[in-house]
Protein kinase (Pricia mediterranea), 261 residues
Amino acid sequence: MTSIEPSKALLKHFDISDYERASPGGQKTVFIVTIANQKYALKIIKVADERFEREVKICKQFDGNKGIPVIKKIEKFGKDTIILEEYIEGNDLSELVSDYVGNAPKVCKVIYAASNILKPVWNANYVHRDLKPPNIRIRANGQPVILDFGIARALDDESITGTGIQPYTWPFASPEQFDGHKKLISYRTDFFCLGIIAYHLYTDSLPFGKTRDEIDRSFQDNRLIVDSGNESINIFCNGVFKHNPSERPRKIESFLNLIKL
């Protein structure tokens, strides 16, 4: 992997005293930088496209929600756009799975907290569309933060039902994402994805298979019933693991009531 270094001009302009190297990620490179003894996530955006604009819009719209990173500054620097964002101390769920395996109350607690962070986002008619362990970071105090709203969508946005490939992460995707049924995507898509995360955290496995082909075959069966070995996890997962989104909880409160704390 090729290491990436910030330019001397960028370090000087933002008065960065220290930084951690980052690797490139498509049109975005992220460094963890120190400015005036405070850590930030500094994102270098090569092309300020609609994904960038959407992520900024959502983060700003829900400024004050402690479960969504705060954007401190947006600035043009040369040909790039720079975002200076709150740095979330902690680890993401993909690094913490062993802490949750077999601990149903802990799994339910983190899923409930993540869902409450997303509740106002869902109420505003957005869907995240890429909920997965790497996109949920846990602060030192145990509270989750939802990351990467870059592929989130407003449900009244025509492009969500337009042509083209819809982005998703296949191990944690819903049937409608897997099948490319764009018109079926809603916040109930996020419900399904949170069910997969809960099952994964409790069992350290995936509910519908380890490969795309296995998951695809599982999704051909409309009866997506799982047995995690725990009643609370089963109630939640089987409440949201419905092939047809219309069969999942219609109201956010009904969804939250499936999570047994």
Remarks:
- The first helix runs from residue 8 to 13.
